[in-house]
Design brief:
The chain has 249 residues and is α/β, with parallel strands linked by helices. It has 8 helices and 11 strands.
């Protein structure tokens, strides 16, 4: 990877709603723009999903495209295409606590009344649980309909509040992101985890761009971090517009 014009400025980007539409694939013009941006400043990706899902959205070999790539909030970290670290929630919490959490979630979701339910309600990832009341196997149309229903009836919000009480002893963070699910992970394992790989002496500015920057959203902690300059975006086009003004004019 060639060195950018201003390597001491780095911009980190969320994936869903920032570089792509939710769960969609990046467009060719958007990826071309990001590659042009990487000639100006250092660029990094910070996604909540695992690396295979990130590759579905951004393309195979995405870890080799930009200097930094963080999946699962940075628990799987790459620099210049090489693994920096892989952390796991199973090692951290232990199997007994994992089983207790899974059993509780299944019982809770069985009693939640939704217009439809599909499959894959709990997805176990390297560094987190992803929990979806409707199920991750829903179609795009069902996903869009559920998002509206969830906003009206606070399905995810209410479930998060119940889990905070039930598992207060496990010191967990609950983060609502995307349209249909929320993440569960140890405190400090939000997207700020990725910042540990960026030495303060290496950068004058660390910018972050994301769409779920509200309190409770999965971009909130890194957006409000003292180490970052946070930018809220509404779409990939908005990301492109803001970055053009900031870094390419």
């Amino acid at each position: 990877m060639s060195k950018p014009e201003n390597p001491r400025v780095i911009a980190l980007f969320d994936v869903d709603g920032t570089l792509t539409i939710p769960r969609g694939e990046v467009t060719t013009p958007m990826m071309d723009f990001m590659k042009e941006l990487s000639k100006k400043i250092t660029v990094g990706i910070v996604g909540g999903s695992d690396l295979p899902k990130q590759q579905e959205q951004l393309g195979n070999g995405i870890v080799d495209v930009f200097p930094f790539n963080f999946s699962q909030n940075g628990l799987v970290a790459y620099q210049d295409g090489k693994v920096l670290e892989i952390q796991t929630i199973s090692k951290h919490l232990g199997e007994a606590n994992l089983k207790k959490l899974v059993n509780w979630v299944m019982k809770y979701l069985a009693d939640v009344d939704l217009p439809i339910k599909r499959g894959t309600f709990i997805e176990f990832r390297t560094g987190m649980f992803n929990i979806s009341p409707i199920g991750r196997n829903c179609s795009r149309e069902e996903r869009n309909d559920y998002e509206k229903f969830d906003l009206e009836h606070n399905i995810r919000k209410n479930m998060v509040e119940a889990m905070k009480k039930e598992f207060a002893d496990l010191n967990l963070t609950f983060s609502i992101g995307g349209q249909i699910s929320f993440d569960v992970f140890p405190v400090g394992w939000d997207k700020t985890y990725s910042l540990k790989f960026l030495k303060e002496s290496d950068y004058d500015e660390i910018h972050f761009f994301g769409d779920k920057t509200f309190e409770g959203g999965n971009d909130y902690e890194i957006f409000t971090s003292e180490r970052t300059i946070g930018h809220t975006v509404t779409s990939p086009d908005d990301t492109k517009e803001q970055c053009t003004k900031l870094f390419m004019s």
